[in-house]
Design a protein that fits this description.
Order of helices and strands: EHHHHHEHHHHHHHHHHEEEEHHHEEEE
Cofactor: heme
Organism: Psilocybe cyanescens
Shape: globular
CATH topology: Cytochrome p450
Protein name: Cytochrome P450
Strand order of the largest sheet: 1-6-3
InterPro entries: Cyt_P450, Cyt_P450_CS, Cyt_P450_E_grp-I, Cyt_P450_sf, Cytochrome_P450_monoxygenase
CATH class: Mainly Alpha
Largest sheet: 3 strands, mixed
GO molecular function, one term: oxidoreductase activity, acting on paired donors, with incorporation or reduction of molecular oxygen
Low-confidence stretches: 61-79, 161-166
Length: about 475
């Protein structure tokens, strides 16, 4: 059977066009089957009108009145909107301070020459509990039994040469994913572990009425399978990607201590000037803490944990281009033709977010100052999404949790830096920390200790 060649594009207009027209460019079958395996019947799986319906249901499930709106208006906000995230910021501050207190306690009782923490594991637990408490009113960290232990293994889906090869085969022959193989088996394990947490949420929230969850209420108490799929999807989307960006940012601040010092100085000077902890309104205000905002933007730009977007042409059509290209026959065109069934691959982390043609010769470097000194090239504005980065996607499948991710990043990072200095452990070689695709996202591992799973061991020093 003839197979159309894969179209790989980093053209801003082409990517925007493909992402905006999800009816014309749905996910390919291999991706759909993985999503159905891990997040059955959820908003992640659906296309077209059903995706729009479920997206509205999920976001609407978290609609409630903020304190301000209760007093003065009849308007309401969704969980993921900026006003509602501000309401939930107390949860994020509380969780961040709990983690800091835990590290302090362990550091004070440690007899080792230096205290080393696995930042990857700590942030993964923190971010998962943050979305669980915020969206589901359910505390994973405080759960009893095996639920809490599952967090240590979530996302530990290490790739090797065999699984990479099999994934390429499955992309071409999707029905093979129905047969037992290492790729599908690891996804089944991931689903089972997240599903166990979702089951616990369902049992306590619906059967025992131990807490109130608007998601479960909106779906309906008799639709357990749909609820489990949505809970699993929310836990993953609300923790996996954000956690890994925060983890890699901490790694960058350790590799480049001058950036860590500069950011901490801005935070401590603000606290001293105000004579109080940083209020949420100031934390998210880019003019109040400009360097913190620049660090976040740079992290979202070049440390995107999802490396690419992928779609498949559903019809014969032409995709417009921002930048003309010259075909092999010498003809210059401003659109590219695709055939039904043709895969479209859109690199993000090593593509449009860090393209030298768009971002300049130092596009691959972690330089927060680029957001403050006016050196970002004008051509970047051709990436017509908020912030000019594709980390949160684009079009109808654009990430709903953008404001929540911003709050997590700034609250967690600022809380850590105001209490600790992060250092390279004397017993570790920083060059052995490798960030690569592990399951659904980019994660760190220690070279030579890959079997231990994702890990970022760093030394921490308590600030006076």
């Amino acid at each position: 059977m003839h197979q159309e060649p894969v179209l790989v594009t980093g053209d801003p207009k082409a990517i925007s066009y493909v992402c905006a027209n999800d009816d014309l460019f749905p996910r390919n079958e291999a991706t759909k089957q993985v999503l159905q395996t891990v997040f059955p019947n959820s908003v992640f799986v659906q296309e077209g009108e059903e995706h729009r319906r479920q997206k509205k249901l999920v976001s609407g499930a978290f609609t409630y009145e903020t304190r301000f709106e209760k007093m003065f208006t009849r308007k309401s906000s969704t969980l993921l909107s900026p006003p509602a995230v501000q309401e939930l910021s107390d949860i994020l501050y509380d969780l961040a301070n709990q983690m800091v207190d835990q590290w302090k306690g362990e550091l004070e009782t440690s007899t080792d020459a230096e205290y080393i923490v696995n930042v990857q594991k700590s942030i993964q637990v923190l971010a998962t509990d943050a979305i669980s408490r915020s969206a589901l009113a359910y505390s994973i960290k405080d759960s009893k039994g095996p639920v809490k232990d599952l967090l240590a293994r979530l996302g530990d889906l290490e790739d090797n040469q065999l699984t990479v090869f099999l994934q390429l085969v499955l992309n071409k022959i999707p029905w093979l994913s129905k047969l037992p193989n290492p790729v599908t088996l690891r996804w089944f394990r991931f689903r089972a572990e997240l599903g166990y947490i979702a089951d616990d949420v369902w049992e306590k929230g619906v059967l025992n009425h131990a807490f109130h969850s608007r998601l479960l209420e909106a779906i309906g108490q008799d639709q357990r399978d749909i609820a489990i799929g949505q809970i699993t999807a929310i836990l993953f989307a609300g923790s996996e990607t954000t956690a890994n960006i925060i983890v890699e940012t901490v790694h960058k601040l350790t590799v480049y201590p001058h950036i860590q010092d500069k950011l901490r100085k801005e935070l401590t000077e603000f606290v001293k000037k105000q004579g109080m902890p940083i209020p949420y309104a100031d934390l998210i205000n880019p003019t109040a803490l400009p360097y913190l905002d620049a660090v976040m933007k740079e992290a979202l730009r070049c440390l995107a944990s999802v490396p690419h977007l992928q779609r498949r042409a559903g019809v014969r059509t032409d995709i417009p281009l921002e930048f003309p290209i010259r075909l092999s026959n010498g003809k210059v065109v401003q659109e590219i033709h695709v055939e039904p069934g043709q895969d479209i691959f859109m690199p993000v982390r090593d593509g449009i977010n860090t393209s030298p043609e768009l971002w300049g010769p130092e596009s691959k470097k972690f330089i927060p100052e680029r957001w403050l000194d006016g050196t970002i090239p004008k051509i970047v504005e051709t990436i017509q999404v908020p912030g000019h980065i594709l980390t949160f996607g684009d079009g109808p499948k654009y990430c709903l949790g953008r404001a929540f991710a911003f709050a997590e990043f700034k609250i967690f990072l600022s809380t850590m830096l105001l209490n600790f200095e992060f250092l390279t452990p004397q017993s570790e070689d920083i060059n052995k920390i490798i960030f690569h695709l592990s399951g659904p996202a980019v994660k760190p591992t220690v070279k030579g200790r890959e079997k231990e799973g994702p890990a970022l061991p760093l030394a921490i020093k308590l600030l006076s």
